[in-house]
Amino acid sequence: MKKIVVLFFSVMLISFSSNAGEIDTNYVQKFKNLFMVKGFLLNNGFQYTITPQNNDAFTEKQLDDARVFYTANIPPVTGVSLNVKGIGFTYIFKFTNDYLDTTSRIKSGYKQFQMNIYGSKFGFEGYYQDYSRFYFHYKGDEILAKNYNADIRAYQFGATAIFINNGKKFSYNAAFNQNQFQKKSVGSSLTVFGLRYNEISSRNLIPDSVKKYFKEYPDLNSNRNYAFIFQQGYAYNLVKNGFYFSNALFLGAGLQKQVYEYPEGKKSRLGVPVTIRAKSSLGYNGKVFFGGLYANADYSQSKIKSLQTQQFQYTYGIFLGLRAIELTKSKSQIRQEEKRKKDAVKKAKEDKKKAAQDKKKKK
Questions:
Q1: Of the candidates 326, 253, 343, 338, the residue with the CA atom closest to the CA atom of residue 287
Q2: Which residues, other chains included, contact 27 with Cβ-Cβ below 8 Å and sequence gap of 6+?
Q3: What are the residues whose beta carbons fall under 8 Å from the beta carbon of 74, sequence distance 6 or more?
Q4: Which 3 state secondary structure label does DSSP give 71?
C-alpha cells in the first residue's frame, strides 16, 4: 500500500508540472478570482450494508434477508466554499442538531470537509467525511426507532486525481466548480485514479437477531478498507448564454485490503471493489453571481467468501455564489497580441520609410 501511495502522489506531481497546457479560447474562458464565496443548502444520505454469504446452514434467500442496513439520519445541512488562488475549500455543517429537521427520529452526527484544484488537463480532489449514530434494519423492513445504535461510527477520507482528456475545449472546472466559463457545449472522456480509506465500527456491529447467519464474523467490531480505485468516465456540459447543464458518469474497479476485527483478533482479505459515480449540475454561471442545483452519488461494492459489503452515498442541493474576477488571457492570446504589436511597429517603420522616400522623390 505504501508503494501505491508514493506512486499516486508522484503521478499527481508530474501531472501538475505538465498542467499548463493551452486551452481553446473559443470554448473556455479563464479568470482570476479576486474574491469568491459560495453557500450551500443540501441533503446528504449515507447507507452501509453487510450481507452474510456461504453459510451452509441457511439458504441463499435467508442469508440475503439477513442483510443489515446501517442508515445515517441527517437532516438538511448547510455549507460554505471559498476559493483562494485556484484552490477550493468546502466545509459542510449543521447550525444545531435539529436544524431543518422534519422527523422525530434521533439525528446522526455528521462532518464533511473537501478541497479541490482543477487545471485544464488535471484535477485533484481531497475529502473527509464522518458519520456517527446509525439506525439499522433488515431487508424489506422499515427503519424503527428501537433499531438505533449510538455506538456505530463510519468515516472515510481519500484523494482523487482526474485526467481530463479533452481539457483544451472542455472545462471540468466550469462544469462542476463554476470557476471558469464554458463558452460552447462540449464533452470529454475522463480517467480517474484514487486512494480511499473507509471504516465502520461498533462494539456490537452485527445485531443479536442475525448473528447466527454470520458464520465467520458474528461478533464483528469493525470493517476497515484501504482501496486503490481506477475509473473511466465521460462528462458533457451543455451551455447557452451563461446557463449550463453538466453531467458526468464514472465506472470502475480497484484493489482493496479489507480488515475485519472481532474480539478474538482480526483477519485481512484482498477484495476487488466495483465503483460507480454520477454527478450533475444545472444553473447559471455569471461574472458576478452564479448558482444552481446539483446532485452527486457514489456507490461501491466488495465481497469476500463470507461477506459482501456495499456503500451508497448521495448529496443534492442548491448553491448561490458571489465573486469579483479579473479575466485572464491564454498564452496563445498573449503571443497573438505581441505579434500584432510587432507587426504594427514594423508597419509604422515601413510607412515612415516610404513617406521619407516619397518626400525625397518630390524634391
A1: 326
A2: 168, 169, 170, 171, 182, 183, 184, 186
A3: 43, 44, 45, 46, 107, 108, 110, 131
A4: strand
Q: Which residues pair with 246 in a beta bridge?
A: 237, 281
Residue of 300, 302, 301 whose CA lies nearest to 269:
302
Residue 125 in contact with residue 95, Cβ under 8 Å? Answer: no
pTM score, two decimals? 0.80
Question: If 0-12 CB within 10 Å is exposed, 13-18 middle and 19+ buried, where does residue 321 land?
Answer: buried
Q: Phi and psi for 241 in degrees, rounded to 5?
A: 55, 45
Q: Is the dihedral of CA 283, 285, 290, 295 positive or negative?
A: positive
pLDDT tens per residue, range 161-208: 999 999 999 999 999 988 889 999 999 999 999 999 999 999 888 888
**What cell does 273 get?**
471493489
Look at the block and give the residue holding cell 504594427: 344
CA–CA dist 218, 54 (Å, integer): 14
**pLDDT tens profile 39-84:** 999 988 899 999 999 999 899 998 988 899 998 888 888 899 988 8
- What count of Cα atoms within 13 Å lies in the side-chain half-sphere of residue 180? 30
Cell of 279: 454527478
DSSP of 75-95, one letter per residue?
--EEEEEEEETTEEEEEEE-S
Amino acid sitting at position 174: A
